[in-house]
Write a structure and sequence with these properties.
single chain, about 170 residues, mainly alpha, about 75% helix
């Protein structure tokens, strides 16, 4: 089974092949949306979020204290036991920090995708109200989007405090 950098390389290879367009204009089978609705920004933004999560998770999985790892090995722990009882829990703070950033990026990506090709949603409201100079509606939508980002960030932080209870907030 591939590990670490190999997993990341395999993901990126699959991701690049997913959005291939054939010479006749048709799309490859791996694509999920019609060509007209998917912008390059969204593809890049998705890649950034996934890479952020993968890189942080790998960093967390590799940041295990060598003495703790030696202790598990001296107790004849299997690879699964080392992963489930040690590596996974050490990686949790890294995973949650990536999730906090990814939730904000998801809000931005959703709003920008609604700019490109939607007929409803907060991004669509911002775009149309800016065209019609309806500043109150536009800023209300911007504030609603900002509040959604804050709520998602707080939700991930709350979950982090519940799951990673052994760490203090300043660590």
């Amino acid at each position: 089974m591939p590990q670490g950098k190999e997993v990341h390389k395999e993901y990126m290879r699959a991701r690049r092949s997913q959005d291939k367009v054939h010479k006749d204009g048709s799309q490859s089978e791996g694509s999920q949306m019609p060509l007209g609705y998917r912008s390059k920004f969204l593809s890049y933004e998705e890649d950034i979020k996934v890479q952020l999560n993968v890189v942080n998770t790998l960093k967390g999985l590799r940041s295990v204290d060598s003495e703790a790892l030696d202790l598990f090995r001296s107790l004849s722990a299997t690879k699964w036991q080392i992963f489930s009882k040690l590596r996974f829990w050490v990686a949790m703070p890294y995973i949650f920090s990536a999730l906090k950033i990814s939730t904000s990026l998801a809000i931005v990506g959703a709003i920008i995708s609604e700019f490109v090709g939607a007929n409803k949603g907060i991004g669509f409201v911002i775009l149309i109200s800016s065209y019609h100079l309806e500043m109150v509606r536009m800023f209300s939508a911007v504030i609603a989007a900002a509040l959604m980002g804050v709520v998602f960030y707080w939700a991930v932080s709350f979950l982090e405090r519940r799951v990673v209870f052994w760490m203090t907030p300043d660590e």
